[in-house]
Amino acid sequence: MKLFQKRAVAVIASLVFGFAMASHADDGTDTLYKTKCQACHGADGTGNTPAGKKLGAKSFHAPEVAKMSDDELFDITKKGKDKMPAYDKKLTDAQIKDLVKYIRSLK
Q1: Rg of the chain in Å (alpha carbons)
Q2: Is 28 exposed, middle or buried (0-12, 13-18, 19+ CB in 10 A)?
Q3: Which of 12, 86, 87, 106 has the greatest number of beta carbons closer than 10 A?
């Protein structure tokens, strides 16, 4: 019985550690993207959503967006452009920088 208990404790500890690491790995940018960007730009960044289609949201994979610098994407997010709203009063500069990194990672 003791061997079973030791194995059970080891399995539980592994699960708890794994969940803790997964939570730590998500610095909140995924959640921030989901709440601020996903409705228009979609989970994959293509803009293929009803709101994205209606507003003409750019796909992050489009050549003209992919060639933009991080600074350009930062400025567009902060100040807005065309139908893209400004987020300077809603997000910190650090959050916007994290979002730019995040959208670069979308595949």
Answers
A1: 19
A2: exposed
A3: 87
Q: Answer yes or no: is 8 within a domain.
A: no
Residue 75 lies in a domain: yes
CATH number at residue 83: 1.10.760.10
SS3 content of the chain, % helix, strand, coil (to 5): 65, 0, 35
Please state whether the predicted TM-score (pTM) of the whole model is above 0.85. Answer: no
Q: What is the pLDDT of residues 59-89, one digit of tens each?
A: 999 999 999 999 999 999 999 999 999 999 9
Tally the domains of the chain: 1
Q: How far is residue 60's CA from residue 77's CA, in Å, rounded to a whole number? A: 13
Domain that holds residue 88: 27-105
Place of tokens 């600074």: 71
- End-to-end CA separation in angstroms for the chain: 48
Residue 12 inside a domain? The answer is no
